[in-house]
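Sample entry (552 residues):
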Amino acid sequence: MAAHPPAGETGEPRPSRDATSARAQAGPAPDVSVVRAPPAPSRPAAPAPGGVLPLRVAVMARTSTVELQDPTLSIPRQVTSSLNALPRDWVAVAHFYDVESGRLNPAVRGRSSAHELFDIPVRRDGGIADLLAEARRPDRRFDAVICVSIDRIARRTYYGTMIEHELEQAGVPLLAADEPIQVGRKKATRILTRRVKQATAEWYVLETQEKAWDGFCEHTRQGWNIGKPPYGYRAEPVPHPVPARRAEGKTKHRLVPDPVTAPVVRQIFAWRVAERLGYKAIANRLNADPDRYPPPVSPDPARQRNYWNPTAVRDVLGNPKYTGYMVWNRRATKSAKGKVNQPATWVRSPEPTHEPLVSQELFDAAAAVARERFGSRTTPGANTAHPDTKRAYLFRSFVVCALCGRRMFGKTRRGVPYYACQRTWTQHDPSGHPKSLWVRQQPLLEGVSEFFAQRILGPDRRSLLAATIGGADQQAQQHHQARTDAPQARRARTRGAPGPPDPRPRNARRPRRHRLRPHPAAPARAGRRAAGQARRARRRGPGPAEPRGPGL
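Predicted structure, serialized as C-alpha cells:
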C-alpha cells in the first residue's frame, strides 16, 4: 500500500510542531492507498489548514442509450449525488462521462459522439478512456475517482474490476457514492458488497435481455411487424391490446401490400429468375422509369438516395417477409452494425401472417440464381470496375461443363481464348472428371454463328423450327411412356407374367449374385474350439453316462 510522500520532497509545506504533536496524541494514521500527484499548473489547489492539500476527485458518470434515457437529466443527477457524498475538504476538479453502453469493451469506450447531441449542463473533460489515460500520467489533476454507483463504470463484472484494478495500479482509488467513502486499506466487507453489486448489475442486464428476446420472438410468431416495413408493404396500425398503452396512442402493426410498390417487388423477382439479371442490371432498369418504379425511402434522411442501387435490389431479393412469413433477427443491428445473421438464427412465424408478394418457390429460385451468379456480371465487355482487367470473353457465364454442371471461365494462352473447367481437390466428383478441361472459343463461335445463320435468320427457319418442335414432342412422349411402363414391367416380373421387353442390355438385367465365402480365421477358430472341448473331457475323466431325454 502506497502512502503519502514525506513533506518537503514534493514541494509541500511541512506541518507545524503543534499539528505534529496533536497528530501523535490522536494515534497512528491509517495506511492510505493514494499516491498524491503534484497539482496541475492550470488548477492550483488551495492548501487546507495544517498545510495538507485537500483530496482532488474526478467524477465519472455514464448513461446507456440515447433513445431510452435523457442525458441532460441523468448526468447532472449523477454528478450532484457524487459531490454530495464527498467530505467537505475534498474538491472535484474534473468531470468525465459517456453516453454509451456499459457492456462495451473499455478499449473501444469513449469513442461515441452521442453526448454532442445534447446540451448537457456539465463540463466534459473526456470519457472513460481519457480518465484512464490521465490516471497513468504523473501530472494528473485528481487523486481519486468517484461515481454514483459502481454499475456506472461498467455493466460487466470483468470490465468493472479491470478498470478498478488499472486505477489502483496508478494509485487512484475508485469510490462510489452509495458506499462508505474510505481511502485507507481495503475492507473485506466493502469489497464483497461491491462485487455482489457488480454481479447483480450484470445479472439484471442479462435477465432483461432474455425477457426482451422472448418477447420479440412471441411478437414475431403472432405476426406483428418489428421496425420499418419492407419495400412493397405498408404498416397497418392496430390499437395496442394494453389499455394504458392504448390510451397513450401506442399501436402495433400488420403488413399489408402497398398498391404502388408491391408490383415493383414482383417485377424484381421476375427479372431475377426469368432473365437471371444481376443487382446492377436490375437497378438500371428500375432507374430508367422512376415514376413506375419509385425508389425506396430510407428511415435516415441523411442516407436518402432518390434512385435504385444494387444494395437496395439485393435487400429486396433477400428479404423472406415477401413470402408471407414474419421474420425477425435477420440483422445484428446493435452487436455487429447491421451485419446479416445466419439463417439458422432467424426467428420465423410458424404460419403465414400477411399476404405474400411472391411464392416460396419463386423466392428460393431467386436465391439459387444468387448462388449460381456469384462472382459474375450481367453486362458484356471488359470488367470496367476492376482496373487490372485486360480481356473480355464473348461467352462469359454461358458455357457450362457437361460433366459437372459448373460454369466454365475464360482463359487465354498465347493469344487464343479458351473456356476452362478446373476441379479443385475440395470438389469431390466420382464421374471421372479430368483435373482440367479446356475448350477453344473458335469452335463455339462457329457453332453459334451457324445456328443463327440457319435457324434464326435463314430462309428455312420455319420448317427447321417445326421439325425441332415435333422432334421434341416425340422425345417427350417416349420419355413419358418409358416412365409409365417401368412400374408395370417390375410388377410383371414379380408375378412371373410376361411383360414388355426390357430395353436394358442382357448383362445389365442379370441379377447380381454374391457367393458366401468362409472367413479366413474360421478354421483356426474351429481348431481352438475342438482343443478346448478335448481338455474339458480329460479333466472330467471317465464316468457313468448321464441319461438324456426330451424332458431333461
